[in-house]
Structure formats: C-alpha cells, structure tokens
C-alpha cells in the first residue's frame, strides 16, 4: 500500500466513524412541532401538562399552554439560572455564579403555585465547575458541571450523588463531544430511557450518550440534529417529546422524534 493509499484509508475510516455518530435512527431524528413566543426563552425551557416555563438568567416565566399567555413570573434571588427539571410538582433549576470567580453552584427550586424561587441544595465552590444540569433518577441526583474554554472544557463532568448528597461517581464527556463544543460546554441534558441526551451552547444538535460499563468516560452513541440550538432542554409530558428554546428568536420550541417515541 502506498503512502497516498494509506492516507486515503485513514481518512475514510475517520469519515465513516464521523458519519456513524450522525446516524439517523428513530431515537435520533427530531422535528419541530410548535413554538411559543417568550421573551424569557434565554437559558432553558420546561413544561408540564398545563404550563410552559421559560427560563432566563434571573427569572422563570409561567405560560398557559392553551392560550400561550403569560401567567406569572418567579420571585426570588437568582444570578445565572440554567436548565430546569420538573420533579414531584416543583421545578428544580441548575444555578451558578458564572462568570464570577470563584464559581459557586446551587440547585434552585420553584414552587409552581406561589412562583417563589428558593435554594434547594448549595454545592458551594464545587471543584467540578459551574452547575448547568440537575436531574433526579433512580433515587439519585445527576448533575452536569460545566467547564469553559477550549483548553479546559474536557473537564466538564456528569456527577452522580445519592440523596444525602454524597458524591458516588464522576464521568467526563468523550473527545468526540468536547471537540464539537468549541470554547463552550454542556448547557442542558435529560435522561431518555437509559440514554443521556446532552446539548451544547448554540448548535442544533443533541449528543446521545450512555454510561460506560467500565471506565469514567461517557460513551458517545450519536449526534442528532434538532430544531433548538443548544441550551437547556426538558421532557414534555404532554407529548412525550422535548421542549427547548431558540434564544435568538426568544421562543420555546417543542420537538418530537420521528416516528414519535416516548421514553419508558
């Protein structure tokens, strides 16, 4: 084999591997089904069966799903809210002091009746970075701590805590994901069955990952095209799809798989 042939073979393998990560299967094809105009659609969105929640840095706005009218805005201190997660009738939001140094992180909780925002758990100055995702699954809290900058964001991590907030395990994101983030980091994430769907800062993609059987690096299964350009996402219980945002358009964006497939 000549040097040119060898180089062509290596390039072919790389391109084939890259294409495989963009495989279009039924878990990895998302289409926009609806939008809701909301000036607060800047960081993330969440939804229940009656309302949609648009999240900006300091405020969470509650909208009626049927009329798309603003119902209420949150009250309470916040500096940099990130993604939101509905759990047992309350909205839990990742929150950090980013870009202030040293970085501190708190899970905020919103009472959906009073719209009062308060502290749920304070991580203090976490060694892992700035909190961008907080989820509850299988009697554990799963949190993403983002680290920013091309030289540093490989340290971005998914951290599992028990209900007493003891750190149980830490996973980092694979190079195939980190290299696609630029100088940004992971902005949103959800559990979809046993897969972890993560979003970056501004690209219209989801990174579909799973926990490795061994080791501490998440396994990258596919990169999926989506209608929302990064930021915080959540499962929409009304449709079984996802809800996210388009920051530029200040819209909450609803998306479903093709064909529609609800998480188990």
UniProtKB/TrEMBL annotation:
Protein name (database record): Endonuclease
Key word tRNA-binding present: no
Sorted UniProt keywords: Endonuclease, Hydrolase, Nuclease, Signal
Keyword Cell membrane: no
Residues in the signal sequence: 1-19
GO molecular function: endonuclease activity
Domain of life according to the entry: Bacteria
């Amino acid at each position: 084999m000549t040097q040119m042939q060898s180089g062509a073979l290596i390039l072919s393998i790389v391109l084939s591997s890259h294409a495989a990560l963009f495989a279009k299967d039924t878990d990895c094809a998302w289409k926009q089904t609806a939008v809701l105009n909301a000036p607060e659609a800047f960081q993330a969105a969440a939804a229940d069966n009656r309302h949609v929640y648009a999240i900006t840095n300091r405020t969470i706005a509650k909208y009626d799903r049927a009329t798309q009218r603003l119902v209420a805005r949150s009250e309470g201190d916040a500096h940099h809210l990130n993604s939101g997660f509905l759990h047992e009738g309350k909205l839990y939001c990742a929150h950090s002091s980013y870009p202030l140094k040293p970085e501190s992180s708190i899970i905020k909780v919103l009472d959906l009746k009073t719209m009062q925002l308060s502290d749920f758990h304070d991580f203090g100055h976490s060694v892992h970075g700035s909190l961008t995702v907080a989820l509850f699954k299988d009697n554990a809290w799963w949190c993403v701590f983002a680290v920013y900058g091309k030289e540093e964001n490989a340290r971005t991590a998914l951290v599992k805590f028990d209900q007493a907030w003891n750190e149980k395990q830490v996973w980092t994101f694979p190079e195939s994901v980190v290299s696609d983030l630029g100088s940004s980091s992971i902005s949103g994430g959800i559990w979809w069955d046993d897969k972890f769907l993560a979003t970056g800062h501004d690209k219209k993609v989801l990174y579909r990952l799973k926990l490795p059987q061994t080791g501490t690096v998440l396994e990258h299964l596919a990169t999926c095209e989506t209608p929302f350009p990064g930021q915080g996402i959540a499962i929409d219980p009304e449709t079984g799809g996802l809800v996210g945002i388009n920051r530029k358009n200040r819209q909450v964006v609803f998306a479903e798989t093709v064909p529609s497939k609800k998480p188990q």
